[in-house]
Structures are given as C-alpha cells and as structure tokens.
User: Which sequence fits this backbone?
C-alpha cells in the first residue's frame, strides 16, 4: 500500500486538475421490466442487456458517470413474494424490500453494462453501492401518503393483509391499493463514497428506487422516495455537470393526451409557472428534478428515451433543460 | 470538483505515506441470526446491534477496515420465500438470492455499525458494496456439489420442487437437501473500488456470503462460495496486514468433540499437516483461509468469538495464526 500511496497523488494531480464533467443517468423502471412482462431473471437480464447496448458506447466515452434506477415493478413483486410467503415467514419492512431491489436490479444492470463495456473494449469499471437516504420525520408527505405500491387487493384480501401489517390504502375502481409517503430526500448517506469512486474514474450504480428510506437515527421510514428527486440530490451533491432522466417517452410533450406538442428545449427558469400543465404522476416530478438540478448549479439536464442517450446528449432527440 | 481535485492529492500525500494497516473482519452468519431464531427484521437488527456494540470501539481506532459476512441462514430463508411464492412468481436463481442477502445483511449491519460509531463519537463512515466473485467453470467442485443449502424436503416435497427447477440433492436422515458446488474464488470484480475506498479511509462491507458467484462472462454460477475463502482472497488482494474470522466459537480447539484443547497461537507453516484434525465443515476452511492469508503476505490472522474482537487482537482470547 505504501508504494501505491506515493504514486497515487501524482497520478491524481495529473488527471484531476481539469474540471470533471460527470454525467448522472436515471434509468426508468422499464429498463428491466416492461409493463405486463413476466418478472423472471432471464426477462430482466434480456431487457437490461438491451438498455446496456444502447448506453455503453456513450458511457465508455464519459470520464465520470453515475447510474440510478427506478424499482417500481420490482418492489411490487418483492412485496407480493413477501405476502405469498407471509404465513410461513416474517414479512420484511419496506426499507429491506428497497434494499433487495437495489441488489437485484444493481447486479443485473451491472452485469449487463460491464459485460457490454468489455465487449466494446472499454476499460471502465463499474460497481453497485447500496444507498441509504435520510428523510425528515416531519415531512408533510407522512401526513398524507399518496404513493401507490404493491398489488391490488379485493376487499377480502385487503382485510386479511391488514391483519398481518397495518398500512394506508386507497380505493382504485373496485379494488384497493397500499399507499405510502413519498418524502423529499434530505441526505444521501453514501454520498462521500460515491463521489470518491466517481472522481477516481469508476462508474457507480446507486440510489436504486430512490434509496433505502431512513430517518437520521437509522430507523427505517415507511416510505418510497422518488428516484428522480434522489437523482437530482445526488447530481448536485457531487457537482455533476449533466443529468439525464431516461424513460419510456421520447421527450417531454405539452398537452400529452391531446395535441402532443414535443418540447425540444426549455429554460429551467421558465418551467416553474407551467409545471401544472404536466402529469403529476409521471412527467412533473422529472421536470421538477431537472429544474432543481439546473437551479442548484447543474449545466444541462435531459429527459429522453431509454434508447437514445447519445442523441439526447447531442441535442437531436429528447428534451433539453438549460 | 476542480478545487477538491487540487486539495485532495496534498491531503493524500500527508495522510498516506505511512503504511496503511488494514484489518479485514469476517463475521459469521450468526452475527445476525442465531440457530432457531425467527428470521424477522427486528430480530436480525437486534443481533446486529449486539455485534456492532462489541466491534465498533475497535473499528473506530482502525485506520482502515473491511467487513465481510456469511449468509447461511438468510440464503435458506430467501430460498424458502421463493419456494412458497413459487407457483405465482418466478423463482430467482442463486446469484440473485445471494445479491438479495448481501443487501439485507449489508443494510442491517451498516445501520447497526454506523449508528454505534456515531454514538461513540467516531467520524468513520462505512458503506456496502455489492460484490461479484468470478469462479472457474472447470472447478472440480462443480463435478461433485457438496454444500447443503435451503430447506429439508420430504420425498414428496423434493419431487414437487424438482419439477420447478433441477438441482442436486443429498439424503440426510429420512429427508433431502439441495447441494450446490462451492468453487474457489478466482477474482473479486469490485476489488479496485473496495481498495480505493479503504485507502480513502472508508470502512467497507462487502463479499457477503462469499460474493455473487459468476463466471468470467458474467453468467451466474449455480454455486455458493465459502465466505472465509473470499475474505482471504480480498485481504491478500488489498494487502491487508490483519484478518480476523469471528464466529460462535471462542477459539480453535484441537480434538473439539473430545478433550477440547484450546490453541492460543499457531504457526501458519505448521497447520498444513494437522488440517485433517479439524472439522471439515466448520473450522478447517477457516484455518485454511488463515494459513493462505499468512502464506500470501498477511501478517497476523485471528479466529475468535464474535464478541471479543478487541481481546483477540490483543492476544488475550481467540487463536492467533502467524
């Protein structure tokens, strides 16, 4: 270690004086599972490989990058697995379910991307860091949980499940669904380590599903943190220059359900007033995250399709937020 | 990042010239679950806190440390959860089950240790890195799988389960149990990142359950890697000076089931010939790992109780291998 320690600072001096231009990418849950697909390992690996193929060439060119990802479908299935086995094995709390999905998706994504990077001759190395994110007990989201997770229940199933664990729920049509709070991320516990790895040239997969929700005393929070919010927090904390939110829509549209006017470019400062025009469940949090990223020092944010990272960064697809 | 990049090398120059004295600790599966305990989250957290209390003061004094851990009980329960939900949800392969246990145990351990470190005023920060370990397709272990995992099956249950997935099994008494190969670890994929973090002063939890078993093409291996073997590989790869294997036995005994002669100190070079005296399933792999660690440049290895790290390192408990 001694020799290494002497050589390292000189190496870092040579490599690190130029401003690092880091790219943070948020992958939608559909990177691994499309709607209605069977949540098996082969299916998720196949999808991950497709995603990897489309982003690896770009990642190979980047000096520094971080990948975050959603976990919506996987959280649902892990909750289901817990419920099905619930009579025989104790059910795990949401913080552990999130941790499990970070490992499942992290390992599958890492395998697919690392293997694709190797194939194209890149020496980039990536790893997956389990991420805990602190939220505030007094966050107003806890007063009015609105984030739906897990399966739909009939009234009978709901009553049965409520005997095992108490939770909030809403009615959707004739069925019921669990809802949890979606508080704002305050602090990413592993931010120092992630920054260190990124500065040392490693690609990092982290903040999966918005991160494991905890309070500042390390107790778990019964919550799901929005992954785009956490991604923005991360991107600003490591002072990344660019952030790209990749999803199953090719760009941001005005009047999405009506005339569908694609937005190619938009000033962050002008988004605030028109946020109400966008769908609360899908596009609005992404636009908010991009706006906050720019307002807090980020240079450029992109919203685009999972399969067009390169052209989004080049400005020929997607939506650019400046 | 630019400013940080300029300050960092100077900081590293000042801090890193002394030889780093890293400690690698392997925690037995019983750190989180004792035999027969209910595998719930509160029980595992309670046990982790007890373990954390006993090791945190020592870790706070260490310049650099890595923690690895077993996952025997947790793999068993995750397999069971998969089996119980098996008719309704696709079962996950062993590589994913291992990844899940790294996240479950990693998050619980990290919470307990980080919170204990904070309590005693330490500024040490730790994180959990998902670890993939490459094994050889031609490893002889694959010809003759011997590592028992998961639940005991009756003949009927076994036949039912074999229809869902093919696996090797052995008969134990009147029941059956799945066995998988336990090949040698060849390469820890994330070794560069782990070394970097450790050199930067972060504590790292990694290599859980011996690591996610993969082949060199990133395909998963139907295997479980011995965690002590992986720990030794890791310890030598990062050139750690010390390795401690903590378990539910207070030291190594000769004639464990008979006269029980405790061994306080032993030369690594003299272990080879007497390895046959130790139990193949429990103590032998630990002694082998310690011997190999010393033979490959490690300075001191310890085998001792989960609750006496301090005294083991001080030489007043446990077994020292030099």
Assistant:
């Amino acid at each position: 270690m001694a020799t290494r320690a002497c050589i390292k600072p000189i190496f870092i001096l040579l490599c690190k004086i130029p401003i690092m231009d880091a790219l943070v990418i948020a992958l939608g849950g559909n990177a691994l599972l499309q709607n209605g697909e069977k949540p098996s390992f082969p299916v998720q690996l196949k999808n991950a490989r497709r995603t990897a193929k489309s982003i690896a060439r770009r990642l190979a060119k980047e000096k520094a990058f971080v990948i975050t990802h959603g976990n919506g479908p996987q959280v649902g299935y892990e909750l289901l697995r817990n419920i099905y086995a619930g009579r025989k094995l104790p059910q795990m709390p949401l913080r552990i379910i999130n941790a499990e999905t970070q490992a499942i998706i992290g390992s599958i994504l890492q395998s697919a991307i690392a293997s694709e990077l190797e194939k194209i001759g890149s020496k980039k190395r990536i790893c997956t860091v389990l991420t805990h994110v602190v939220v505030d007990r007094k966050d107003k989201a806890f007063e009015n949980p609105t984030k739906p997770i897990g399966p739909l229940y009939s009234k009978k199933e709901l009553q049965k499940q409520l005997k095992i664990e108490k939770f909030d729920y809403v009615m959707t049509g004739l069925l019921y669904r669990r809802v949890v709070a979606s508080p704002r991320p305050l602090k990413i516990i592993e931010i120092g380590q992630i920054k260190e790895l990124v500065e040392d040239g490693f690609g990092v997969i982290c903040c999966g599903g918005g991160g494991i929700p905890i309070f500042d005393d390390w107790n778990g929070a019964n919550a799901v943190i929005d992954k785009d919010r956490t991604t923005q927090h991360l991107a600003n904390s490591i002072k990344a220059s660019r952030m790209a939110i990749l999803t199953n829509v090719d760009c941001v549209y005005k009047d999405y359900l009506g005339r569908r006017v694609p937005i190619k470019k938009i000033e962050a400062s002008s988004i605030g007033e028109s946020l109400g025009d966008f769908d609360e469940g899908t596009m609005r949090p992404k636009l908010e995250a991009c706006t906050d990223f720019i307002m807090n020092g980020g240079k450029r944010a992109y919203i685009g399709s999972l399969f067009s990272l390169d052209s989004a960064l080049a400005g020929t697809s997607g939506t650019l937020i400046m």
